[in-house]
Amino acid sequence: MDEKLIRYEKQVRLAGIGETGQSRISTAAVLIIGCGALGTHLASHIVRAGVGIVRIVDRDFVELSNLQRQVLFDETDVRRQLPKAAAAVEKLRRINSGIEIEAVISDVNSRNIENMLDRIDLVLDATDNMETRYLINDACVKHGIPWIYGGVIGTTGMTMVILPGQTACLRCLSETPPAPGVMPTCETEGVLGSVPAVIAAIQAAEALKIMVGHDPAAGELVHIDLWDNEMNRFQVHRRADCPACGRRQFDFLAGAAATEAFSLCGRNAVQIAAIADAGPLDLAGLKVRLASLGTVTDNGFFLNFKIDSYELIIFPDARTIIKGTTDEATARSLFARYVGG
After folding, report:
1. Which of 72, 118, 199, 209 is the most buried (most CB within 10 A)?
2. What is the domain range of residue 265?
3. Dihedral sign for Cα atoms in the order 105, 123, 149, 318
4. Which residues of the chain have a pLDDT value below 50?
């Protein structure tokens, strides 16, 4: 029997896929943005399904604390300090050598995201911050590319299929992202390892539906809480006045609503600053959330948070100086982990 028929036999037997659907899957190109808990599960599903081109983008490297939930990594990757995208692709190529798998080790921003969409049919969100999701939304709505939002925190997760021109987009759901410091992060709240597995499974199933031409559960926000065994679905309606899909005003893609990161000369530090005014941070609340993770002090003007070899000086306007690195991608990652946004 042909090797491809053996590999995908159980998938081809599904009434919704068949040989025609498998052929469509094999010619599809998917971009996975983020290669952490969601991204590793997603990449495994997508590669095993036989998607023809899989491009994985991530800015971080593998750490020991990742292994609890990020299924493509192991202790060897931690010792080698491999970039997550590179470590994932190394594993995935051993799983399926018959497709094209590409690692992009980069921070996703308004300057490079449209290039990342080259040849791409579908985008899967596995990011760790809302600002990047709004950027994905802008880029995909502009170019008419379907994308699937996914997010996890604690014991809960959410996902939503967005078909530009047909369904509500992310800005129909919420016009602006929450301000930095308002939303809890995985670093402060933790993650139950099975939650990203479930959300990624839903995202992957919806992705395959799109590839084979079957109607996905588009325009629905799915919310789960595995600790309380709850699952809810909410219909999200398209807004005619939506800045992105209604007025085609792509603020995040233009960089107007992004955060700036730049190295501070001679100081081994990077400053992160929000361009848009989102109001003052709740420094007292943030201090409480960070206290269990490292050393936090408050002098009445800013928080000083020390963790590992880094020091974050967090001001009320969300401006943050991150000492211990001159790498902007590392600084953005630390900002997303501990301040949020």
Report:
1. 199
2. 259-338
3. positive
4. none
